[in-house]
Write a structure and sequence with these properties.
The complex is a heterodimer of chains A (378) and B (506).
Chain A lengths: L14 E10 L5 E2 L1 H9 L9 E6 L9 E7 L2 H14 E8 L13 E9 L13 H15 L3 E5 L4 E6 L3 H7 L6 E2 L1 E9 L12 E3 L2 E7 L4 H10 L9 H15 L4 H8 L4 H4 L4 H14 L8 E7 L2 E6 L8 E5 L2 E5 L2 H7 L5 E3 L7 E4 L15
Helix pairs in contact in A: 1-10, 5-6, 6-7
Chain B lengths: L12 E5 L9 H5 L5 E3 L4 E3 L9 H5 L5 E5 L12 H13 L4 E2 L14 E3 L20 E3 L8 E3 L5 E3 L7 E3 L3 E5 L7 H14 L2 E3 L16 E5 L8 H6 L2 E5 L10 E3 L6 H7 L7 E3 L9 H14 L6 E6 L4 H10 L4 E5 L8 E2 H6 L4 H14 L7 E5 L5 H10 L3 E4 L1 H6 L22 H4 L4 H25 L15 E3 L4 H7 L2 E2 L3
Parallel strand pairs in B: 11-12, 11-21, 12-13, 13-14, 14-17, 17-18, 18-20, 20-21, 22-23
Antiparallel strand pairs in B: 1-4, 2-3, 5-19, 6-22, 7-10, 8-9, 15-16
The chains are: A alpha+beta (378), B alpha/beta (506).
Chain lengths: 378, 506
């Protein structure tokens, strides 16, 4: 229980961080060496207590299955969880996550992955009519809360999170990311102020296809958490990042808000700006704030948020954390520091510092290119 | 009235006049609403038994010649037979009546707000400077949709599909609590209305109808419907920004009200729609609400009468089972629930009720907010917390415990000069607040005190902005219900659990 769950009784985990993201809008794949190089430039933004990556497009052969990455503290926990999985899921394939033992990463949990889909006649159907996604979310929360010594850290389709305790460049070696290919990568270097050696606390934090890397502290954590609890989200991890993931899940998947609208919930315009909007728009944004006031993420943050359709990077509403974006052909880069981008893309077509609360959005296929000021025309 | 000469009860206060300083201007005689002072041919004479320590005389004495002191002659001390108990026995044995007082309880109960500490940012997240960054206090009261219902139009622009239910927009999360015309003077109400309009907040008519002079302030007025239905008619319901159904009041849960006939002059008679000189008696219950389903009918009757354009608020006193009660009220269709704690004020209440019935607003509020969240209906209604909000710190703590806004009653009267003497029921208020005597009412200038009310609420709003900034958030909704920013001190586990907060240090 020490390694993968929060050992301190803190309400939440506090950390400062560095982050990076690379996306190819045409889904051209690259291996993990670029993202590793970029995040290693931000070495000093972390303290060796957490590093991680999310990659999209890496499980092409199992693209229709949920890829569960699970950390285990002990083997009995593995047996218990697998019993649950067997009862409720069809397990197409399972295997240990390939790792490379390095001197930099020692004392790691047992890491296993499963490619699964929910059974159509699962027991749960006696009580609910949950869709597969909802059932997977429930299962992830159930395992993370009720199964001591087990923690699901990735549960999406054709994507995966690879994370742990250590500097991100060492974590990259540990998981052999240079052998993995994907069309979108995010990375995180963590500087926690407590909970040393906590594998579950490393970023990215994921749920289904959502993955979040996050730099900052959500000063409104208390109310964000209580708001989510009203919708039966169980905040087992007690991290700020978990809150962001669940809010996006609620807004985009459950409330079916377009991504750009969901983002304005996280960092809404100030009333002084809303008051100057014209009739319909003013009404919409006022309603947005009235309804989702408790989901506003207040306090400093920069996040890079990956999902099946693309990537978003954004800051809090008064930009209290650094974030730089650049584009070069079909590639878009975001990072905490310009140097990280320049390390892998020395002369981008365009490089800029996104404004407070103004997301940089890149979507696949639709051939949208990021523009200064983001894609949002609100 | 008991004749003082026949009473065992000693004067509580002594009005001491320094005759060397006194210039015999007789202002004290004019100013005292209680008839304490008279002129004895060559000097001012004070009848101590009439003094209530309302502070008017020494405030207006040009020479500073008056001091009001506690009567040093005390009943002999006994921790069990305390002075107020002994005096009440005498009072009741003399009159055979119920002991009645104004204002909130004078008992020294634990004040939970004073045992709650606020958080601030250090290092890991930055505090925000309210002098340089926007700091939003705007608050909307009313039912909120649980999710945004929108669609994308042909131009690719998002448009709202379902209209939001009606809201009260407040520029700062304060409202003035319900105080009726009758319990307070028209000038006091005017001061509240002027301030509410200038501040972009609302005042509340209480159960006294809406005087013609206040009709132009409609956008800043909540009109109340209580068990006596005084002054209620169709135009009245539509003249405010919202309608409040009053079920109970913190100072006197479970009982009604009584405005004695001598206070019902022509103006009040017209506003309340009752004959001059008749007692205005508000029954303990609404006689058309004997249960929750009846409340639902009244809520919807009011909504029908106002074309569903006004939020409907329901005001209740904080009693033992408040969480379940409020849940029922929300499910009955209320858009706002106003919860009044046991230390809330009143124009008149029996002491036995005022001092012994109800529970603290802090605990009630915490439990209500928690219950509504558990039931997934917190968005269905806004919560106003009341019951002696004494400072902006109390307001911040109430909001962090889960209130959308707080109501200010006694504090607003203190602005107008009230010294909380607790004698509102007598109608002799020297400050012109809780009186209908024209010579006393006249001295309360609505514009002067409207401005002071404006000052107070502005000052408190600035203080809230400072605290928000220190906590690193720039919008009041990020504080609302954020109990993680609160810690308890000197509280038991049971108290912490009821408040839903951790002890300091944890």
């Amino acid at each position: 229980m020490l390694k993968i769950k929060n050992r301190f009784n803190a309400e939440r985990d506090i950390s400062g961080c560095g982050l990076c993201g690379i996306i190819n809008a045409k889904k051209v794949k690259t291996n993990g060496s670029d993202i590793k190089k970029a995040i290693s430039v931000e070495h000093d933004r972390g303290n060796g207590l957490g590093g991680g990556f999310a990659v999209y497009g890496n499980y092409r052969d199992y693209a229709e299955l949920y890829a569960f990455h699970i950390m285990y503290d002990n083997l009995p926990a593995k047996a218990d969880v697998e019993e649950y999985l067997r009862k409720n899921f069809i397990i197409e394939k399972e295997e240990p996550i390939p790792i490379f033992r390095t001197s930099k990463i020692y004392d790691h949990p047992y890491l296993h992955r499963y490619f699964i889909k929910p059974k159509s006649d699962r027991q749960d159907k006696l009580f609910h009519e949950l869709g597969d996604d909802d059932f997977v979310v429930n299962s992830v929360m159930l395992i993370n809360q009720n199964y001591d010594g087990a923690y699901v850290f990735s549960s999406g389709k054709n994507m995966g999170a690879f994370k742990g305790v250590g500097y991100p460049e060492d974590i990259a070696d540990f998981y052999k990311l240079e052998e993995i290919e994907g069309y979108m990568w995010t990375a995180h270097n963590r500087f926690p102020t407590n909970t040393p050696g906590w594998w579950g606390g490393a970023h990215p934090f994921t749920l289904l296809d959502w993955s979040i890397v996050h730099n900052g502290e959500i000063s409104s954590y208390g109310i964000n958490k209580r708001y989510l609890e009203m919708y039966k989200y169980n905040l087992a991890l007690r991290t700020d990042t978990e809150v962001i993931t669940y809010i996006l899940d609620l807004l985009i998947r459950k409330h079916r808000l377009p991504v750009r609208i969901a983002l304005t919930v996280l960092a809404p315009p100030f009333y002084q700006k809303i008051d100057k909007m014209d009739g319909d728009k003013k009404e919409l944004f006022t309603a947005l704030r009235q309804i989702y006031g408790s989901a506003l993420l207040n306090g400093p943050f920069a996040i890079v948020f990956g999902y099946s359709n693309g990537m978003v990077a954004m800051n809090d509403r008064i930009k209290l954390r650094p974030l730089v974006a650049a584009s070069s052909g079909d590639f878009t880069y975001v990072a905490s520091e310009e140097a990280a981008i320049r390390a892998v893309c020395p002369s981008p077509d365009m490089i800029w510092s996104p404004k407070a609360g103004e997301p940089v959005m890149v979507e696949f296929e639709e051939k949208k290119v990021p523009q200064k000021g983001g894609l949002i025309n609100l | 009235m008991t004749k003082s000469s026949f009473s065992n009860i000693q004067s509580e206060y002594l009005a001491i006049i320094d005759h060397n300083k006194c210039v015999r201007c007789k202002r004290c005689i004019q100013n005292c609403g209680w008839g304490t002072y008279s002129f004895g041919g060559d000097k001012i004479i004070a009848d101590h038994s009439k003094c209530v320590a309302c502070g008017r005389c020494y405030t207006y004495c040009p020479e500073g010649a008056i001091s009001i002191i506690k009567n040093p002659t005390r009943i002999r001390e006994n921790a069990n037979w305390q002075e107020n108990l002994v005096k009440n026995i005498w009072r009741q044995s003399e009159t055979g009546g119920i002991v009645i007082s104004g204002m909130g309880t004078t008992f020294k109960y634990k004040k939970y707000f004073d045992h709650i500490l606020l958080d601030a940012c250090q290092v890991t997240n930055p505090s925000i400077d309210p002098l340089r960054e926007p700091m939003e206090l705007r608050t909307f009261l009313g039912k909120k949709l649980s999710k945004l219902d929108m669609e994308i139009d042909e131009k690719g622009e998002p448009v709202l599909k379902t209209k939001m239910p009606p809201q009260i927009e407040l520029q700062t999360p304060f409202v003035f609590g319900a105080m009726s015309y009758g319990s307070i003077s028209l000038n006091a109400q005017k001061a509240l209305a002027l301030a509410a309009r200038a501040l972009g907040i609302v005042m509340n008519t209480g159960e006294g109808g809406l005087h013609d002079d206040l009709v132009p302030f409609g956008k800043n007025v909540i009109v109340q419907v209580a068990s006596g239905r005084f002054g209620v008619h169709r135009d009245y319901l539509n003249s405010g920004i919202a309608v409040e159904i009053k079920i109970g009041q913190g100072a006197k849960p479970g009982i009604g009200g009584h405005l004695p006939g001598e206070k019902i002059g022509v103006d009040i008679s017209k506003t309340r729609m009752i004959p001059v000189g008749t007692d205005a008696i508000s029954p303990a219950p609404h006689h058309d609400i004997y249960s929750i389903e009846d409340l639902r009918q009244l809520i919807y009757a009011v909504k029908e009468a106002t074309d569903y354009e006004k939020p409907v608020s329901v005001k209740v006193a904080a009693v033992h089972n408040i969480a379940a009660i409020v849940s029922g009220i929300v499910r009955a269709g209320a858009d706002i629930v106003y919860i009044d704690g046991y230390t809330g004020g009143t124009g008149a209440a029996p002491n036995i009720v005022r001092d012994h019935v109800g529970i603290p607003i802090e605990l009630a509020l915490a439990q209500v907010d928690e219950r509504l969240r558990e039931e997934g209906i917190r968005n269905e209604a806004s919560i106003i917390a009341a019951g002696s909000i004494r400072s902006s710190a109390d307001a911040v703590k109430a909001i962090a415990l889960g209130a959308d806004a707080v109501a200010i009653g006694t504090a607003a009267l203190i602005v107008m000069g009230c010294h909380v003497c607790g004698k509102c029921n007598t109608g002799n208020c020297s400050w012109g607040i809780t009186t209908q005597r024209p010579e006393l009412v006249r001295r309360l200038d609505p514009e002067v005190y409207g401005e002071r009310l404006y000052n107070l609420i502005s000052a408190w709003s600035h203080e809230i902005q400072e605290v928000l900034g220190a906590m690193g958030v720039n919008s009041i909704e990020s504080l609302r219900g954020s109990r993680e920013r609160l810690r308890g001190i000197e509280l038991t586990d049971a108290e912490l659990k009821a408040l839903g907060i951790k002890h300091a240090g944890l």
